[in-house]
Amino acid sequence: MAEWQTLSDRVNSVAPSATLAVDSKAKAMKAAGVNVISYGAGEPNFPTPDYVVEAAAAACRDPKNHRYTPTSGLPQLRKAIAEKTLRDSGYEVSPDQVVVTNGGKQAVYEALQIIVNPGDEVIVPAPYWTTYPEAVRLAGGKPVIVFSGAENGFEPTVEALEAARTPRTKAIFINTPSNPTGAVFSEETLRAVGQWALEHHVWILSDEIYEHLTYDGEKTAYIGAVVPEVRDQLIVLNGVAKTYAMTGWRVGWLIGSVPVAKAAAKLQGHMTSNVADVCQQAAYTAVSGSLDAVAMMRKSFDKRRKAIVAGLNAVNGVTCRTPKGAFYAFADVTALLNRPIGNAGKTAKTSSDLAALLLDEGHVAAVPGEAFGAPGFLRFSYALADDDLAEGMRRFKQWVG
Ligand code: PLP
């Protein structure tokens, strides 16, 4: 490639999405006729509820919905999001604090673009969702990774945050329930982090996209409710993808102070403008309706959660805590590294090597912990059919021996 063809430093600094990479390799193997069981994808395997699809179909037939909407979103959808926030999180926000985005992912991206200056540091508690550090880099910031292991239930501790804090610390991510660990942070953790952020003037980016997927009577706690004083420095990131099985519709939102919401709308006005009108109509029907569909999904996920944790712990050398939220099991596989494994007795030095071997030889796809700042682990999404889940576990166990 000639020098003039070199792509920007900005894009070259960003790593491709490892979760999408595993998923596409598994799909390519499937397309080539290999029977692969994939625990890679982070999306519910349920259809979007019928009444949501019907609302979208009706909206599609009406020409008035074939146009641009306000950049920040349809007024009725912003209002419904504000009402839903009061219902679920227990505190009031006004519709003009809400901006409807192209998925939760765009909300993450915009939040960082709004608050981060070049060289600012953003604390990313690990294990983290794979997009966070890359979105920080795209904003010119520096991700500061603070790892918290199974011994802390994968919840960040203020001692570790304080050790990582510098005069450049601008923001911290909180993601509960967590992708990839399934941890549901306690109120005590949120209180401690909220007070720490308040004291040190650190923005909080609270990703609440898995809020309705909790098990064993566990409930999502909301940092804006637990520490109300943080609301002026809080940006909530959320969307319809996981609660209503609507990953493909690409509707998310952010909630911040009015200046934050205005800044997000300004940015979005030059990027993607509004989210597709028909998708917003579908999201309006979902968000303003009941939570019955997610209650049904939660039941199925709960059954699979128990099955996968049992399946993983039955594999020699694998240990997996029981996750309390989301739809991921995060298994410690360090005992499988640096020893002959699988059909051909090959050796995996890292969890990345292990994931590659398991896919090639065992025809089972899981995402290596490296993608989440947690080498030594594999993430298994259990948002797949019961039979596939059982078959994949059988293969994994047999492959390890
Ligand atoms: N946040 C977390 C923690 C996620 O796992 C995801 C999707 O996997 C998202 C945000 C973004 O979801 P979407 O852009 O599909 O709304």
Series of H and E elements = HHEHHEHEHEHEHEHEEHHHEEEEHEEEH
Domain tally: 2
Helix content class: 40-55%
Task: From the alpha carbons, calculate the radius of gyration and give it in angstroms.
Answer: 21 Å
Strand order of the largest sheet: 2-8-7-6-5-3-4
Residue fraction in strands: 5-15%
> Which sheet architecture does the biggest sheet show?
7 strands, mixed
- In the CATH scheme, the class of the largest domain would be Alpha Beta
CATH superfamily of the largest domain: Type I PLP-dependent aspartate aminotransferase-like (Major domain)
Give keywords.
15% strand; binds pyridoxal-5'-phosphate; Aspartate Aminotransferase, domain 2; seven-stranded mixed beta sheet; 41% helix; 401 residues; four-stranded antiparallel beta sheet; alpha/beta; Aspartate Aminotransferase, domain 1
Account of the 3D structure:
- The chain has two domains: 147 residues, Aspartate Aminotransferase, domain 1 (Alpha-Beta Complex); 222 residues, Aspartate Aminotransferase, domain 2 (3-Layer(aba) Sandwich), CATH 3.40.640.
- By secondary structure, the protein is an alpha/beta fold.
- The strands form four sheets. Strands 2-8-7-6-5-3-4 form a seven-stranded mixed beta sheet, sandwiched between helices. It has a four-stranded antiparallel beta sheet with strand order 9-10-15-14.
- Helix 5 packs across helix 10.
- The chain is built from 14 helices and 15 strands.
- Helix content is 41%, strand content 15%.
- The structure holds pyridoxal-5'-phosphate.
- The site of pyridoxal-5'-phosphate has 13 residues, from helix 5.
